[in-house]
Amino acid sequence: MTPLPRRQFIQGSALAAALASMAACSTSSGNDDGPVTFEGTGPITWVQGKDNSAGKVQARIDEWNKTNPGEEVKLIELSAEADQQRTALVNAVRINSNAYDVVSLDNVWVSEFAANRWVVELPQDELKNDDILEPVWQTGVYKDKFFAVPFHTDAPVMFYRKDFLAEAGVAVPTTWEEVKAAIDAVRALPGHENIGGFGGQFAKYEGLTCCASEFIHTAGGGFYDPDNQVIVDSAESVTGLQWLIDGFSQGYIPKESLEWKEEDGRNAFEKGDLLFYRQWPYQYANSKDALGTEKFDVAALPSIDGKAFVPTLGGHNCAITKASKNKATALKFVKWWISEDSERYQLETQTLAPILGSLYEDADLLQKFPYLPILKKSLENARSRPQAVFYGDVTAKIQDSIYPAIQQPGSRSSQDVITALSNELKKLEG
């Protein structure tokens, strides 16, 4: 295989990438090792992060297994943490292991796995339909070829304890200043003096990259321009980081969230220890079971200093490994996994954001999930993390730079932090 340059990128913004043209492809991958045809039937594995849905994923796979004898799918669950999931997947595909057939990739891993030909090119003409949200579809494209079809997308929303807001006589906030005022009002109530304010995933892992990026992007900053040049050292990026640092220093973002990943914050929210939570929509099903809809609700994330909040585009894509021996079955399963029935099932049982635009306007679904218009707006406004071939290095530099700044607010100026981060990202270009 021809050696790859240290850093290669597809479009940094999913919305910008939606404007890029896509070349037609056939059922062959056309990679450096020659074409790969989708042949071979038999048992396969589906590999994803830990299932937090109390068995809903396995239940769906059981449906496949009942109707596809001889082509059974075995669920393999990896860590709940994105960083550890990626490590496990990379370790397997690097040795060309055939233990993994169809794998779930965070959409920012697609370029890395495609560039290294750890996964095969997919026949987009067999997978695409006009109902798939275009920015979401584009997350599977690398260098005009299609390698990983999305099966659910993601964008954060703001969960809030509407019982506590009602007790304080406070309306649902729409701006950051209103969020802070609401926190102050609830903390003035007996028994709520120490409630956490606005939580997020600020532990030193991928969640930090997502959350910190949102403050920087909202301020008008960014990490790379469309020509793949590092642009993070800007007044806008400094402003966004300062907003985040101030949230911690002023006590509106709880210091406990420095150790929180998704489920940690959810537990605090459901226990009544957190008023607002920046979180992915999967939580809705969990909180509905734990609290009932009379105690919580979902709103759009707040504007900051007059600027509309820019969420991080999340989501996961299906890819077929190069080493899979039963690629025909794997492709058949992928088609089923992204079908409308499967998308409905994921939404109704796990509140995962569907890839199909029509489901956000479905009357029955809107009755069950009234937050869908809020989520769709979040998706439309979302911006991707840098989709780098060496994304692991990029996100590690972001985390290494920003975590100390929020852990010890005031220890370094936001300008110094941003300048140092810029220098570190530029070193990766070599």
The CATH architecture term of the largest domain is 3-Layer(aba) Sandwich
Number of domains: 2
Strand % is 5-15%
Low-confidence stretches: 1-31
What topology emerges from the helices and strands here?
Layout: H1 14-17, E1 44-48, H2 56-67, E2 73-77, H3 82-94, E3 102-106, H4 110-115, H5 124-127, H6 134-137, E4 141-142, E5 145-146, E6 149-154, E7 157-160, H7 162-168, H8 176-187, E8 196-199, H9 206-218, H10 235-249, H11 262-271, E9 274-279, H12 283-291, E10 297-299, E11 314-320, H13 327-337, H14 340-350, H15 363-368, H16 372-381, H17 391-407, H18 414-427
Parallel strand pairs: 1-2, 1-3, 8-9
Antiparallel strand pairs: 3-11, 4-5, 6-11, 7-9, 7-10
Helix pairs in contact: 9-10, 9-17, 10-17, 10-18, 17-18
In short:
The chain has 430 residues and is of the alpha/beta class.
What do you see in this structure?
With 430 residues, the chain is an alpha/beta fold. The chain has two domains: 14-155 and 314-381, D-Maltodextrin-Binding Protein, domain 2; 157-312 and 387-427, Periplasmic binding protein-like II (D-Maltodextrin-Binding Protein, domain 2). The chain has 18 helices and eleven strands. The strands form three sheets. It has a five-stranded mixed beta sheet. Helix 2 (56-67) links the parallel strand 1 and strand 2 (73-77). Helix 9 (206-218) packs across helix 17 (391-407). The radius of gyration is 22 Å and the shape is globular.
